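LOG
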Amino acid sequence: MVSVLVVNDQSLQRLALRMLLTAEPGLTVAGEATDGDGAIRASAALHPDVVLMDSRTSGAAGIETIRRLTHPALRATRTPGFPAAAVAEEAHAPRVLMLTAAGQEGEAWAALRAGAGGFLLDDADPAELTAAIRVVAAGDAVITPGLTRALIDAVREQHTVRPLPRTTGLGTLTERERDVLVAVASGWSNAEIAQWLSIAPTTVKTHVSNVLAKIGARARVQAVAFAYESGLIRPAA
């Protein structure tokens, strides 16, 4: 059963999302929140698998909210009333799925860097939304094709891409792991990577897991951001 925390400042939208999700087999609504601070407190108390957050609800502090949700150790130092001892007890951090409006791709890129596990346009149909929640809960990334193109355009608009220090993990990758990371950042599936490298899909999965661990990423979507920001991949002009 995948538990979901719904974060939205509109009561009717929260109700609609609760009705939709509770009607789906294998999904349950753990709770609701109206803003970022409420989402952090509710996540710490309820331990949801996925936080479904509307980008408009999170507001200007949304990126920091995502960072605190996906990195529990930050909660003790930045959330009033959050007990430091709870950090040691909390081995589970939720995946964050953002609902974003068209034209907000720049914010989506920043959210990706902060630790969000997926993005869906807020006009997605119910089937797309429930499928995305399941995918994100499983640890995979969800980015719609249109938003993927927009995110790549956002990277292109950055005038400089500075290689990150060796300590970030890039220098610890083997040559094969770098090949796998490049392929992941190019949007290839494990099956496609396996065919390209002439290795078994299970071996690709192991390589991907090792890459994520070395660069400190929790999902493939963060690996994509890392590949661009580290200079391993240069966006085409």
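LOG (cont.) second protein
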Amino acid sequence: MFTYNCRIFQRYDRPVASLAVLADDSPNWRPGAFGWDLFGCRHVLEYPLVKLLDYAPRLEGLLADPNPFALVTAAHLLTRETRGDAERRYAAKWRLARLLYERDWDRQRIIDLFAVIDWMMRLPPELETKLWQELTTLECNKTMPYVTSVERIGYQRGRQEEAGALVQKLLRRRFGPLAQETEDQIVALPLERVEALGEDLLDFNSLVDLDIWLRRH
């Protein structure tokens, strides 16, 4: 934040305001400044902050608030609350999805907000499929085909490509360049396998371990 504040000031030669939004789980971590004091020279950036954890007691109010940022904040809190509980996360994600259709928002806003919720609230494949089936039924009843069909394919493909690119980047950083055949194998993996590889590669000692993993999966 300090660096960006300085660079934006240098670029535009105008005063810059910085705001910190803290999404961590520690209620007492509230850094409000950064800087240094050296040889009598003091350089400090003090900034206001928002702690999303503080809004947990106001969850129902956030869900009822028409402000899109309130819904995103609620999604963050529900993601945190349902960590490790797939069924509860499914119920929370389904509730948020229904709320999108109840608001008087345009199609693109609904799609964009659903993309954020979908990214935050990952589900096991079977519950993800169930959610899309429910969404399809909801859209048919409301005659509002917003986030299913083409959008769903785009979300799934985008998530898979992002995960695959990240895994390849981590592997290159540890072991150097990858063979084209290896890259092709990673690209062809379904999303859940790519995510599993992202966890397992921490235990690899060489590219031999990667080859063994790919043959087994």
